[in-house]
Amino acid sequence: MSKQSIKIGLFGFGTVGQGVYTVLGQTKNAHAEIRRICVRDINKPRETVVPHELLTADADDIFNDPDINLIVELVDNARASYDIVTRALRMGIPVVSGNKAMIARHLPELIELQQKYDTALLYDASSCGSIPVIRNLEEYYDNDLLLEVKGILNGSTNYILSRVFDHGENYDAALHRAQQLGFAESDPSFDIDGYDALFKLIIITVHALGRFVPAEKVFTVGISNIHEADIQYAREKGSKIKLVAQVAKVDDSHFTMFVMPELVDKSKYIYSVDDEYNGVVIRGEYYDRQFMFGKGAGGYPTASSILSDIMARLHDYRYEYKKMAYVDRPEYTTDIEVRVYIRYSTTDVPGRLNFSHIHELHLTEQSNCIIGDIPLSRLMEQRDIFDNDDVFIAHIPTFYIDRDN
Amino acid sequence: MSKQSIKIGLFGFGTVGQGVYTVLGQTKNAHAEIRRICVRDINKPRETVVPHELLTADADDIFNDPDINLIVELVDNARASYDIVTRALRMGIPVVSGNKAMIARHLPELIELQQKYDTALLYDASSCGSIPVIRNLEEYYDNDLLLEVKGILNGSTNYILSRVFDHGENYDAALHRAQQLGFAESDPSFDIDGYDALFKLIIITVHALGRFVPAEKVFTVGISNIHEADIQYAREKGSKIKLVAQVAKVDDSHFTMFVMPELVDKSKYIYSVDDEYNGVVIRGEYYDRQFMFGKGAGGYPTASSILSDIMARLHDYRYEYKKMAYVDRPEYTTDIEVRVYIRYSTTDVPGRLNFSHIHELHLTEQSNCIIGDIPLSRLMEQRDIFDNDDVFIAHIPTFYIDRDN
């Protein structure tokens, strides 16, 4: 496609789709135009006005248009997203997608399809909105030095926690406000239970270490059970609670990954990542820590990231997934000890979890709290305990302290 | 060169060269090896021990070796660097270089040579050590949305200012310590007078806006005239003084750029970029601000950046300089008003500078201080005034406040 212009078939015209339309209209040098937009209901009133003939409800109007040489898929439904993306790849049409849930579930198949049909799927917008994490892991941190990628990958939970921590708002009010501002997904549990961050982490891990780990194998807990007592505890320690996703090498041949709230102290870069922002720390041998920070939620930041993927296609860019071919790729493990804070009342947490070591135990009439060390694998086995709404867990980072820092 | 292995001829074996040698030895998947190292004196004792037959004092041993398919140039001398790089490009051999002074001076010619001889020159290590600024500007922020790139690009002045501001050290002691730690260049004036930051800014501007601006056209003042009174003034305002380089669009068809100390207040991302770290803020329409932060000085961080450039050559990566072909590239201007703090004693600053507007004037027996607005072009005309060691200038950012923020 080099040097030619890009003719886009767009699927989905929600916040991000409309953002892409507006942003493309503003860039004189994009050499890209939207030829057709496929939506469910062409007559639905929309904030962004487009020529009526651009809209269609029939996907075939895009797939059968021989002029269209790029499909941009921004539908809010993982099944429909999968159908569109795989159909396009099978036809040899490159695709830009922002659907992290779909991509995180089907990445091995999507990689295979790209290779089989010699075409490209780009999805930098799927992780951390406007921050170019995937592209940098794929191209720039393309070597064996990488030790860890860790960060705040979900803008809406971070917004909620910022409102709670820095503005003294209660949790429900903060959630409601996040939804009003368009930061939270239509199903907020996707954000709040940590799945959005998990899907991004799975995609990041493929490009960081060349390993695909299915969602069900990753310990994932969100923020919905946070209580005033947890906020109080964090404040007393001079910390904030953030929802943190991380993948880290634990030795030369193993890595681990998980998503959970973390007690983040002031000395950490991510401590000051507030509101709807995302922040990612990339740590490696020799270069130590790199920190990238930017808007992680909202239509325009995501649209600008989609634009970067669109323009990359002008130069036939595709992910090479080089690290999947590396020798001595590290193996995934949950066989590591993590230190956690757990607050609970009626659930028998000490009985169920069998800590390796308990550092603190506070029992009061209102609630109890344990600080202890436990294998991540045991947390995985007993993960249903965290569905009980009297139980809240937060990670206390320790396990890399002896590696450097 | 795709899929083949890279055989490197290395010029220069100082801190960074030795770092590259060590880092390459640690990466199993680099598919790159150093075939020959050209140094001035092969018998000089070095910290990193290498097989004696790797070393040569004769550049021809590299240029005449048909196996060598990449030259990595890390010599500490701009003239020698120019000769090596241009000779290699003319032979069609791709080059990785970290010499910002040489690149910033000769970039138009170096771009022409790359095109004429169909080969590549990569130099991401030349700007901000381990932070992938060039690559991201070239590939990811490859569109018309970019408004500004601003940051702390020089690790050694930042280290010195951090020692002075946060540790109450005096300036000379801090400079001495920076040199001991290997953060300062062999000629410290290169850092301290702002030239290192300027050269990086010139390179960044080519990849940010597609425009090459020669060094002599850019207003550049360093930190060597900073006094206790300036530090005191900044502290009273709750600010720090940092050496900041910036390029910014001032309207749709113009941009400006300059390097000078800045009074940075707490609300800014770069406020917390301390010690030898670099921090760069990339601002654009729609995505607002992105912040990248990492180690900007030192052998290993720079070496890891060189490694990224080396590995990019495995996939034939080269800069396309796309933005130089953009329609409606903005024009460089110094015809903008800037607000500055100037402290002076004997020099007739008000007489020479003819401020457009003076906001504050403090006259004391020890020293005087003006806060005023002045065209950048007038500062340029009178730039020799800042060679007087009783005059210190610091920028007070105002001119983009009305654009967003």
| Shape type of chain A | globular
- Percent of residues in helices of chain A comes to 25-40%
Note the total helix count of chain A: 13
Largest sheet of chain A: 7 strands, mixed
Question: Radius of gyration of chain A from the CA trace?
Answer: 22 Å
The strand count of chain A comes to: 17
**Helix/sheet category of chain A:** alpha/beta
Oligomeric nature of the chains: homodimer
State the end-to-end distance of chain A: 46 Å
Strand content of chain A: 25-35%
The whole-number mean of residue pLDDT values of chain A reads 91
In short:
Two copies of one chain form a homodimer. With 405 residues, chain A is α/β, with parallel strands linked by helices.
General description of the model:
Two copies of one chain form a homodimer. Chain A has helices spanning 15-26, 60-63, 78-90, 100-116, 133-139, 155-167, 171-180, 189-192, 195-209, 228-236, 299-313, 349-353, 376-381, and strands at residues 6-11, 32-38, 55-56, 70-73, 95-97, 121-122, 146-152, 219-220, 239-251, 254-265, 277-284, 288-295, 331-332, 337-344, 357-363, 368-375, 392-395. In chain A, helix 3 (78-90) links the parallel strand 4 (70-73) and strand 5 (95-97). In chain A, the strands form three sheets. In chain A, strands 7, 8, 9, 10, 11, 12 and 13 form a seven-stranded mixed β-sheet that branches. A six-stranded parallel β-sheet of chain A has the order 3-2-1-4-5-6, sandwiched between helices. By secondary structure, chain A is an alpha/beta fold. The first copy, chain A, is 32% helix and 25% strand. At the A-B interface, helix 1, helix 5, strand 12 and helix 11 of A face helix 1, helix 5, strand 12 and helix 11 of B.
